[in-house]
Amino acid sequence: MHARVKRAAAPADAAAPADAAPVALATLCAIFLKVGCTSFGGFMVMIGVTEDAVAQRRKLMTPQQVLDGLTLASVLPGPMAINLVAYVGYHLRGAAGAAVCVGAAVAPSFLCMLAFSAAYFRWGHVAALGQVFMGVVPAVAAIILAAAWRMWGACVGDWREGALAVAALALALLLPGLHTTFLMLAAAALAGWRCFGGAATERRRTAPAPRAGAPVPRRAALLLAALPLLGLAPGVLLKLLAAFAGMSLLMFGGGYVFIPMLQHTVVDGYGWVTRRELVDALAMGQLTPGPVAISAAFIGYKVAGVAGAAVASVGMFAPAAALTVACARLLERVRHSAAVRAALRGVRAAVLGMVAAAAVVVGKAAAPHWLSLALFALTFGLLLRYRVEAVWVVPAAGAIGLLVF
Fold first, then answer.
1. Which residues cross the membrane (predicted)?
2. Is residue 27 predicted with pLDDT exceeding 80?
3. Are the beta carbons of 214 and 356 closer than 8 angstroms?
């Protein structure tokens, strides 16, 4: 009883952890390399692993701040998980932190996709990794649910926030889609403003401003001038960059929403890959430890080798991440308004329900086998009870799937 009262009395918009020395860029790189290596199963897994790494284990941010970043990432175009990573990096070390975190988080899946692409175009269709994926799916569902469980304990202070989270969970499952997401977030912001706007007795706190990082170097012109010396065609690379940057800024609602746009552009428009190759690229994207949008690297690799894969990946992730950083600056300026804080309380609860819904959706994709339920329960227990890191759980689940399924 006392614990419940204590949690309910805690401010919903908790202050940031004590302002310590700025986090070193090398430390951020190491953290998000690990995040990038363990985020098998899609963007929601990377979100869960990111929250565990920066809020639970290292206390660099509060769960409320992570949810604020997730809210911003969910309403902006581009891969949602990478947008969240950009927000976290910017909050901790400014623009340089955002660049380092995004690069480190994308690097493992990019290297995996390069290896898959090289093998694919040398030996043909890759089908041997399907069994690994079947073992990973229940573990992925457990990782997402564990993140939602932890954030519930940290962010839900009374029955009104709990009701908003449950309502968002139900709507996300019953009426999935981009329009539902936007309407849900808008309704939650209005409900939060109405329900929590009058509670202005909270002591006003000024969260530390994002730690300024060094400006990102402007070397694009030098790199472009060096391309002919490397035997690369700048025209082809610029076309890849423009195509994927355009899709990135039009990609609302997650990686799977942009698949029809991707087919229209790279198959029907430019003819860079066949439909079968696109399907295989998307399948291999699900087997890398990162967002399915890393399939862009496969397409770029076929068009212009390693340089094409790199340019396509930059086009897919960098524009939306830069937009997230720009919007994060605006959010930092207005978030201390009493009305904005109240609205954010409602939006956080709705986002929390959406995270829980993602765990249900992923769980439905698991193989109908007793081992799937066992892997889910074991992973969930290891994450919450023993705080085992996903870096150990996900590969073990994949190995079990390879042996059993």
1. 30-49, 70-90, 96-120, 132-152, 164-196, 216-234, 240-259, 307-331, 343-363
2. yes
3. no
Structural domains counted in the chain = 1
What's the rounded mean pLDDT across residues 99-126? 86
Res 281 pLDDT > 60? yes
Q: Please report how the helices 43-51 and 338-364 are oriented relative to each other, as an axis angle in degrees rounded to 10.
A: 130
pTM beyond 0.70: the answer is no
Could you tell me the maximum CA-CA distance found in the chain, to the nearest angstrom? 71
CA distances from 342 to 164, 202, 244, 349 (A): 13, 11, 37, 11
Question: Which tokens is 93 given?
Answer: 């070390």
Give per-residue pLDDT as tens, 202-259. Answer: 444 444 444 444 444 444 444 444 444 344 556 788 889 988 888 888 776 555 556 6
**What phi and psi, each to the nearest 5 degrees, are found at residue 366?**
-70, 155
In a domain, 278, yes or no: yes
Does some domain include residue 164? no
* 3-class DSSP string for the chain: CHHHHHHHHCCCCCCCCCCCCCCCHHHHHHHHHHHHHHCCCCHHHHHHHHHHHHHHHCCCCCHHHHHHHHHHHHHCCCCHHHHHHHHHHHHHHHHHHHHHHHHHHHHHHHHHHHHHHHHHHHHCCCCCCHHHHHHHHHHHHHHHHHHHHHHHHHHCCCHHHHHHHHHHHHHHHHCCCHHHHHHHHHHHHHHHHHHHCCCCCCCCCCCCCCCCCCCCCCCHHHHHHHCHHHCCCHHHHHHHHHHHHHHHCCCCCCHHHHHHHHHHHHHHHCCCCCHHHHHHHHHHHHCCCCCHHHHHHHHHHHHHHHHHHHHHHHHHHHHHHHHHHHHHHHHHHHCCCHHHHHHHHHHHHHHHHHHHHHHHHHHHCCCCCHHHHHHHHHHHHHHHCCCCCHHHHHHHHHHHHHHHC
CA distance 123 to 249: 34
Amino acid, res. 64: Q
Q: What is the dihedral of CA 152, 156, 159, 162, to 10 degrees?
A: -40
Structural domain includes residue 6: no
For residue 308, give its domain range: 228-316
Domain assignment present for residue 362? The answer is no
